[in-house]
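User: Need the bound-state model for 5-hydroxymethyl-3,4-dihydroxypiperidine:
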Amino acid sequence: MNLPSGFHFGASTSAYQIEGAAQEDGRLPSIWDEFAHKSGRIKDGRTGDVACDHYHRWREDVDLIHALGHNAYRFSIAWPRVIPQGRGAVNAKGLDFYDRLVDRLLEKGIAPYATLYHWDLPMGLHREGGWLNRDTCHAFADYAAVVAQRLGDRVYSYATFNEPRCSATVGYLEGRHAPGEMDQAKALQVAHHLMLAHGLGMQALRANTRTARLGVVLDVKPYHPADDSAASQQAAHNAYGVFNRWFMEPMFLGHYPQDIWDGYGAMVPAMQESDLVTICQPIDSLGINYYARGHVEHSAAKPFPHAADVRCATSSFTDMGWEIWPDGLREMLVRIHRDYRVPDIYIAENGAAMDDVLENGRVHDPVRRDYLQSHITAMAQARATGVPISAYLAWSLLDNYEWGHGYTRRFGLCYVDYPTQQRIPKDSALWLRDFIASQNARPYTR
Ligand code: IFM
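Assistant: Bound-state model below.
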């Protein structure tokens, strides 16, 4: 595939989804602890209290990453472990955990990619209004500074946020994620504050690092019209704007997309004069999470963007019901490069939930293997056209807590037998290991 030997291959995880140890060593609850325990909206009624017990098994997990031939690993730092109330006192034990993890990754030739916020807002801040309260953006910047002062340039790549779109939309409009609200205007205000916090967080990271690469991770999706009508084409354009441009244009161009702003009408967020300047910080690297495309038709019955999902009869779908559409990854990489010219892009998440079965100590998952292979090929095609792409990180290293689905969805390269916490590399993990070796990817050195 003509990838340079410094290309990074690995997998991603996030704190609440794998760590467990929810009440240990000074960690306090986040909005996800509260939501998982109380909302009644988790499919199997379960929580991340134990998850994959990674907080206790992190050494073996790093050995596993190494054995799979990865030279990069993306994880998230739990804000409620590091600053349990969200602002104020720093919890030394929480920071120590990530300090040891980073050192161990470096010893093993694995580049640490750290995300500061993967949806686990400390409850202390949520009680003061959470992401609807502008002060939370400043608390986030303080937290970013604390982490960067401790981990510094040992972290190869920092991302401020994972999928701000998802935090805002699924948490405040669809109500399927914490904190479970269903209000479009609130979702837009939260999105604005998440972006403002990203800008302030970037400044804090910049002030406290020298060589680490800094940026954000966004979930991206192409939208295709399900029929030839002008109305459906407009719906696809609008949906693309709501999903992608609403976040990328403020961050990379310094303004909201005017057509989408007009579409939202009176629901647009309140902001201050200089917010867009703060939000539009230069980044070193953009992480993108790609899973599926959107396929929509116009629906007057739906609120703006007036788009209704249409299931394509000829497509295959994952266990999440997401359409398998590898070319969408190529399409998005080429389009993002064309529209925003960010200096570097990496695939921060890509993967498939499948109905995996453990049989005689093996998990045969040919559909996931094909999914990974076809998406890596799509990425390489984009790269061959000149898009600067530096890493491919699969979602996820382990089966884990899939938010509102609890433990009923398995995305892992490694199967987790939850009663014993045994990790079993699936066939796709072994395929990826051999593929990485075939690309001569070299271990990471600082
Ligand atoms: O599990 C999530 C992850 O936390 C964020 N991106 C999508 C994944 C699959 O739903």
